[in-house]
Design goal:
alpha+beta, four-stranded antiparallel beta sheet, 7% strand, 46% helix
């Protein structure tokens, strides 16, 4: 390996190339691409030459490299051509270089034509070499109509390794990118190990297809493995700080039947929230209780659910935070009717009061919604004041009125009535004007606050307190039935 290559061989910021480099790194047992040696590259190239030209990877690679030498049906009776193609694209890093530069790494592009006939422009790559590029004859979006992208041999090898570092989910590939190199490597290494095991299993069983990495949907797979990665990191070192990592899933197919790409960016606020939860044993237990009730309902016992609704809805944040709070922290059922196996349809606040956690909600407000401490404190204080009032007076009317308020006026009337009763008894009102404005009429980044969000947050604190005191269990049958909420953000 040249000195220049050794210096510049690191992550580039291009998500698919970086996942390919991380897969090369994981395959070699290293921690960063800068540690790769020429021997590591030769070992990866040897794996490609031995495994990409036969099933199950040969059929699997249609999703990544259609019409390449790996997958071309014309080569079914000419395995030597598959072998030769594999040698060309996997071994280009050791061949001659040309004058063009790889736009991703700055390294010299390979001087080899990357097809068997040798009639392609030297070093130029197309959709059969790199997923989601255009074909050989498509000049759109290329400078001067000069089709293809010049790549160095190392970038080409990384792109060939890319599918092995992706999760295979429902016939498509899920590549996971992060600005945290440890997290990037974790995903690539995890999927690489799973795919290698799948290759072995398929061969032992005489199967031609590589098994899916997971039976779950792409976004659920992404969150599952993010939480596993955080648990693994916490086992190695008990961190209390640090910046939340970026995390983006690229769910794609490069199939000749149709190219598709879905991008799933996980907001930094959500990453920060999940890190805070996973680093606190008590919060982690509360969170895991919620996630356990987020799995898709199944038709029969033993059937594997395809998604976790809570995980999927993390990608709607922070915009859909009010709805998320209502569904998962307050346990109000969803009104949607398109998916009868959606677990949120069966949520019930009275029946699931034990799952309500103010501490988890409070962390969510601060990390995801960036709510100021003063507003959080006002919400907490009103919830506590209402709980004391209801416990002292056993006033189910105030509880029901607050819980079932259909509009802002009804909510305000309930609080005024209870506060007036407290004043007549010689005590201070339940809520001050400043607290009322902070809870119901102020909202960070929003010109008009949603009074229902303030009500829901106070309810979470109120219900938690009433449940801990046993009042809620005693009066459960007398309380109004939980009604589905409108699916508003």
């Amino acid at each position: 390996m040249s000195e220049e290559m050794a210096v510049l061989l690191d992550y580039t910021g291009h998500p698919l190339l970086d996942v390919g480099l991380a897969t090369l790194t994981a395959f070699s047992g290293k921690k960063r691409p800068t540690q790769l040696t020429e021997e590591d590259l030769h070992n990866a190239a040897q794996y490609i030459r031995e495994n990409y030209i036969v099933d199950p990877l040969k059929s699997f690679l249609n999703v990544a490299f259609p019409n390449s030498g790996f997958t071309n049906p014309a080569f079914e009776k000419q395995p030597e051509k598959r072998r030769k193609y594999a040698e060309i694209v996997s071994g280009a890093f050791a061949g001659p270089v040309g004058e063009e530069r790889d736009p991703f790494t700055g390294l010299p592009a390979t001087a080899l034509p990357l097809n068997l006939d040798g009639d392609l422009p030297p070093g130029r790559t197309y959709r059969q070499h790199v997923p989601l590029l255009t074909g050989v004859d498509v000049i759109n979006f290329h400078p001067y109509g000069d089709a293809g992208i010049p790549l160095s041999g190392i970038s080409l090898l990384a792109f060939q390794m890319l599918p092995m570092g992706c999760a295979k989910v429902s016939g498509r590939l899920l590549a996971v990118h992060s600005d945290d190199p440890d997290l990037l490597l974790y995903f690539a290494k995890t999927f690489l190990n799973t795919n290698q095991q799948g290759v072995t299993t398929a061969r032992v069983g005489g199967e031609k297809k590589l098994p899916d990495t997971s039976p779950h949907r792409a976004r659920t797979v992404l969150i599952e493995h993010l939480l596993l990665a955080e648990r693994e990191r916490m086992r190695r070192e008990r961190e209390n700080g640090g910046f939340p990592p970026t995390l983006t899933g690229y769910y794609f197919t490069n199939s000749g039947q149709g190219v598709e790409l879905d991008i799933y960016p996980l907001p930094l606020e959500v990453s920060d929230f999940l890190m805070a939860v996973m680093r606190n044993d008590s919060l982690k237990l509360d969170w895991e209780a919620l996630t356990a009730r987020g799995w898709q309902l199944t038709r029969k016992e033993g059937e594997i659910p395809r998604y976790n609704r809570l995980y999927e809805d993390l990608f709607t944040l922070p915009e859909a935070a009010p709805r998320f709070i209502r569904l998962y922290f307050l346990r109000k059922p969803s009104r949607q009717t398109l998916d009868k196996f959606d677990p949120t349809l069966n949520y019930d606040t009275r029946r699931e009061a034990s799952l309500i956690s103010w501490r988890l909600t409070e962390i969510f407000l601060k990390k995801v919604m960036l709510m100021e401490e003063a507003r959080v404190q006002s919400i907490r204080e009103l919830g506590d004041a209402l709980a004391r009032y209801i416990l002292d007076r056993n006033d189910r009317g105030v509880f029901n009125g607050f819980w079932m308020a259909r509009n802002y006026g009804e909510l305000r009337a309930v609080l005024i009535r209870a506060s007036a009763a407290e004043v007549r008894a010689g005590r201070k009102p339940l809520i001050t004007l400043d607290q009322f404005l902070a809870i119901f009429e102020q909202s960070e980044g929003m010109p008009n606050a949603d009074w229902r969000l303030g009500r829901d947050l106070v309810l979470i604190r109120l219900l938690e307190q009433l449940y801990q005191k046993g009042w809620l269990q005693v009066h459960a049958e007398e309380l109004p039935e939980t009604a589905p909420e409108e699916e508003t953000m």
